[in-house]
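Narrative summary of target 7.
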Amino acid sequence: MRILLIHAKTFEYEAKEKALDAAEELGENKAGKFQNVLVVFLTVEKGDGSSPDVVEKAVSDILDVYGKVGASGIVVYPYAHLSSNLAPPEEAKRVLVQVAEKISEKGVQVSRAPFGWYKRFVIDCYGHPLSELSRSILPGVEPKRGYADFAVMFPDGRIVNIEELDPYEAVMDAHPLLWHMHFRDSNSLTPGYGKIDFKTVIRAIKKINYSGYCTIESSPMVPDADTAARDGIEYLKLLERIVDYQLSPEFPNGYALPSAIKPAR
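Modeled conformation, tokenized:
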């Protein structure tokens, strides 16, 4: 099974004409319009229908991403373009129904686009780090996951999770070119909701006497826009007060500037 997961701000589709003789009959799912939805483009491959573990793993992965991005629902969308090893139509249709039903059993709002039809669709992807993901699920094989949060690819091909990088050194290296600082946490939410050490970042920008713009971002806005903005601003202001104290002569513990460290008596 191959899956492409898109967290969409808006998504709409409409069935236009049959693509297969085995196309299902159209009903209420002939067309649909959705907001803040996780669109699951799903290709059923040969053997998926005889391996219950494939459906279970697919549903588990879909629900995991659904929970992380804060979508309001899920759309299961038949998509035969992610593999050349396609299951027979009846098997594919059965698996698609099973995936949608098992998602529904978890109390999640789910819709399923019709199988076997050429469809028009329009999608507006949010564009945050978790908004475009893929999964390959094979019978008896654990799905191979990518980075849950941000990762950085270096020119030599190394891929490093952002939590493994030193934010202080990153700011110090980039400071001759810095004129705008954009704060977003490792999970794309407002500062303080993820794993990035923003206190270290603020210590670095204090050290270089940065005076440019700073903005914060949260995508999606969790739990809502006003709360996300307020939490992010208050969190960074709190860290700024802590850093100001740590860089003062009253706090000579290694975070302070060398000139502020008092000699031991």
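The radius of gyration is 24 Å.
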